[in-house]
Design goal:
The chain has twelve helices and 17 strands. By secondary structure, the protein is an alpha/beta fold. Bound molecules: pyridoxal-5'-phosphate. Pyridoxal-5'-phosphate is lined by residues 107-109, 112, 132, 184, 188, 216, 218, 247, 249-250, 255, 260.
Length: 404
């Protein structure tokens, strides 16, 4: 008799974005004249930069001729891309990462979900609360989290590290020692960034306890401040305890194109085994490579033209972030994030719950955001606005909110 993976039955419904969509649709139907502005989107909106489009076109043309046609890509990625990544993202920042430590993939969501496979089921996982849901749900599926606790609204065997107003939305070293620590900086959803000194404490802690840090740096390109590290490998000793995940989605608009990579340093060993070997085996067995065309597009991200165009694109979003942050702050809201990230995290006024504020904002300002409680129990009482809209809409949304 067939049985199913019962761990899947422990997953909690991800009602967040579907509930948001339903509420917005109902409101629009009841108020057909109202122009709703959406600042809830976690997706980029600017088109691909010209340098990337040119590279895509060229690669497509190569596929049309037998002499330049490419079939299966190398398992771990084409050298032209891995070399560009190693040089630009790591070596130029003083990180000792080489091209053969880089695994090209179809994005950071898959990698952040798949990476847990190379670890034993008895490992204890620590995550921030609030958190990007993929880290927890994929560990639930694997059977590493225990049962769901309806009172605490989280899983019994996961270590949750609250990120609150009191600690500046940065996790503190947990009391119980974890094996796997998921960190994401700059953070989605809170927009918080971590300084190099603070991240070094985590690296030291992992090296002392033997834990492994899975570091999601998907928003690295939004970093503005000098003391905020772009990679965990800027910290001393990180190649002995950390895996880094990167994506082309938020820095270059590849959310629909799909490209990312994972760095597993060769020095990183646990349980007598190089994690690099395990991830290479997993990647080679279960993944047949990101498309050639897309890897060429990724290469263009590192060209001089590509870099200049993408800086402009990020600046566009960060101008929106500033409009949101300063507008709300001047209106008396308690706001954070938005300086090194495209997310602004605000405290709901008057003790409103996240969902009460959602309804209030939709009704009074016709603006859509994302309730913080959807990202974890400690997100309750907070609300996420994103900088991915157009400048005009962002300005209007903030005008409407401040007039409420
Ligand atoms: C958007 C995002 C990613 C990137 O996902 P892709 O699959 O590369 O599009 C990864 N981590 C976080 C926290 C994100 O918000």
């Amino acid at each position: 008799m067939v049985t199913v993976n019962k761990n899947y039955l422990k997953l909690q419904g991800s009602y967040l974005f579907s509930t948001v969509a339903k509420k917005v649709a109902a409101y629009q139907e009841a108020n057909p004249e109202t122009r709703i502005i959406r600042l809830g989107i976690g997706d980029v909106t600017q088109p691909l930069a010209p340098a990337i489009i040119t590279s895509l076109h060229n690669a497509v043309d190569e596929m049309a001729h037998a002499e330049t046609f490419r079939g299966y890509a190398p398992d771990l990625g084409y050298d032209f891309l891995r070399n560009a990544i190693a040089k630009n993202d790591y070596q130029d920042r003083g990180c000792r990462i080489t091209a053969d430590e880089i695994f090209v993939s179809d994005g950071a969501k898959s990698d952040s979900g798949n990476i847990q496979e190379i670890f034993g089921l008895d490992n204890k996982v620590a995550v921030c609360d609030p958190v990007y849901p993929v880290y927890v749900d994929t560990n639930v599926m694997a059977g590493r989290t225990g049962e769901y606790n309806h009172t605490r609204e989280n899983f019994d065997d996961v270590i949750y590290m609250p990120c609150t107003e009191e600690n500046g939305f940065l996790p503190e070293l947990p009391e119980e020692t974890p094996d796997l620590i998921y960190l994401c900086f700059p953070n989605n959803p809170s927009g918080a960034a971590i300084t190099k000194d603070r991240l070094q404490e985590w690296v030291d802690y992992a090296n002392k306890t033997g834990a492994v840090i899975i570091y999601d740096a998907a928003y690295e390109a939004y970093i503005r401040e000098e003391n905020v590290p772009h990679s965990i490998y800027e910290c001393e000793g990180a190649t002995e305890c950390a895996i880094e995940l990167r994506s082309f989605s938020k820095n270059a608009g590849f959310t629909g194109v799909r490209l990312g990579f994972t760095v597993v340093p060769k020095e990183l060993e646990r349980d007598g085994v190089k994690l690099h070997t395990l991830w290479a085996r997993r990647h080679g067995t279960k993944f047949n490579g990101a498309p050639y065309i897309v890897q060429r597009a990724g290469e263009a991200v590192y060209s001089p033209e590509g870099k200049a165009q993408l800086t402009e694109q990020i600046n566009y979003y960060m101008r929106n972030a500033k409009v949101i942050y300063e507008g709300l702050k001047n209106a008396g809201y308690s706001v954070s994030g938005g300086v090194n990230a495209p997310y602004i995290w605000l405290k709901t006024p008057d003790q409103m719950t996240s969902w009460e504020f959602f309804d209030y904002l939709l009704d009074k300002a016709h603006v859509v955001g994302t309730p913080g409680s959807g990202f974890g129990a400690h997100g309750e009482g907070f609300f996420r606005l994103t900088a991915f809209g157009t400048y005009e809409n962002t300005v209007e949304a903030i005008e409407r909110i401040t007039k409420m």
